[in-house]
Specification:
Elements lengths: L2 H11 L4 E7 L5 H13 L4 E5 L10 H12 L4 H11 L6 E5 L2 H6 L2 H11 L3 E3 L5 H13 L3 E3 L1 E2 L5 H10 L4 E4 L15 H8 L6 E4 L5 H8 L4 E4 L1 H9 L3 H12 L1
Parallel strand pairs: 1-2, 1-9, 2-3, 3-4, 4-5, 6-7, 7-8, 8-9
Helix pairs in contact: 2-12, 4-6, 11-12
């Protein structure tokens, strides 16, 4: 069983919800990034999303965009991200999901790139800017090798479109809490109706992201969804810290 499926199955059996922190690979340093993943896995992170730095982030707010530009300037590459993950895979119990632009995936040949991710120790992939035709092809391939392929569903996604995105996904669904770019928010919209609508279509776990930044918001998401994704708030704290791994650990403990 894929590690993602096993984790969500165990959580459901124990009536628990997942915490999914997001980090930018190599930020603020390769050492800080890898140590943060190790620490977070030990203190409450169930699934860790690892952002592959990209020069033109699609939906990332200023905090994540700045982190990506910084690590690109420091020489981070997709191959280095994979090497970084491979070096810690045996010591990280959390599932690891790659968040990567389709331009990176396609440049290397999509199936080859997926194979490389899996060989490095990733358990799945999210490609936020993939077109639907490519998604159909890649979803089929990922399912054939038991590699999680997750699509994003926005609050404004029509039901017919959402149904297809659900059918293409495995592991879990990524529900955007709001439209626009990601970033810390003081309040979250009411997600109950949208989540209940999705549950009529699938029994896949539903993870909610975009704007979740504190324990109260995590609890709000957990009332209806299976997982809360926290990105910008964590990346900002790591950016501002002299001890990013310790900061990441403390933040995960706080919000979990």
């Amino acid at each position: 069983m894929n590690r993602v499926d096993a984790i969500f199955s165990s959580l459901r059996q124990n009536d628990k919800k997942a915490l999914m922190p997001f980090v930018v690979a190599g930020h603020p340093t390769v050492k800080g990034s890898t140590e943060a993943m190790l620490q977070m896995s030990q203190c409450g992170a169930d699934v860790i999303e690892i952002g592959f730095p990209f020069s033109d982030p699609i939906a990332d707010g200023p905090v994540i965009s700045a982190a990506m530009h910084q690590v690109l300037s420091d020489g981070m590459t997709p191959r280095k991200v994979m090497d970084m993950v491979k070096s810690i895979r045996d010591d990280v119990s959390a599932a690891l999901i790659a968040m990567v632009s389709y331009s990176i995936v396609d440049k290397c040949d999509a199936e080859t790139f997926i194979n490389d991710l899996q060989s490095a120790g990733f358990d799945g992939v999210i490609i936020p800017d993939i077109d639907i035709e490519s998604a159909r092809t890649l979803s089929s391939y990922c399912k054939s090798i038991d590699f999680v392929f997750t699509m994003l569903i926005a609050p404004t996604t029509p039901q017919k479109r959402a149904t297809e995105l659900i059918s293409l996904s495995s592991g879990f669904l990524y529900l955007l809490a709001r439209v626009g770019i990601t970033g810390e928010q003081s309040e979250l919209p009411d997600l109950e109706d949208r989540i209940q609508s999705i549950r009529t279509e699938t029994d896949l776990p539903i993870a909610v992201g975009f704007g979740i930044s504190n324990p109260e918001q995590v609890a709000q998401v957990h009332r209806h969804a299976d997982a809360a994704i926290v990105g910008s708030a964590l990346v900002r704290r790591m950016s501002e810290s002299d001890a990013p791994a310790q900061t990441a650990q403390q933040f995960v403990q706080e919000i979990s």
